[in-house]
Amino acid sequence: MAILFFNEGIKFNLKPKNSYKKWLREIAAKEEYDIKDLNYIFCSDEYLHQINLEYLNHDTYTDIITFDNSDEEQQIEGDVFISVDRVKENAIKLNNTFEVEVQRVMSHGLLHLMGYRDKTKSEKELMRKMENSSITLFNQ
Predict the structure, then answer these.
(1) 58 is in an annotated binding site
(2) What is the rounded distance in angstroms from the CA atom of residue 28 to the CA atom of residue 42?
(3) Residues of the chain scoring pLDDT < 70
(4) Residue 49 among known ligand-binding residues
(5) Can you tell me whether residue 41 is helix, strand or coil?
(6) 71 is in an annotated binding site
């Protein structure tokens, strides 16, 4: 049940790490999932753009890319790449604090690993509802 945090090409310190780990486990448990191996990699816009080009063939900037590595149902194994640059921009654009926006994208990646999608309007609405519920859970 490892949840690990990494930086790639940037300096970023997620504090307090244990609070985030506990929170992520609580989100998963609410949906009856177990976290087996979950990695969050915080990086720059350029780093994430290269991943988007190389692995997804998308020439766009994004705040998050999630790779699902799980083999078993209800078990989470994955890598979540987050652009700290994009999170900072989105926080300003959405009139959120940086911390809340970090929580939003972290929960977003985890929700993807639990099967939530965000392609259609109804999927996006449900995803946003689940993100907001996750943020509320963090602050309890």
Answers:
(1) no
(2) 21
(3) none
(4) no
(5) strand
(6) no
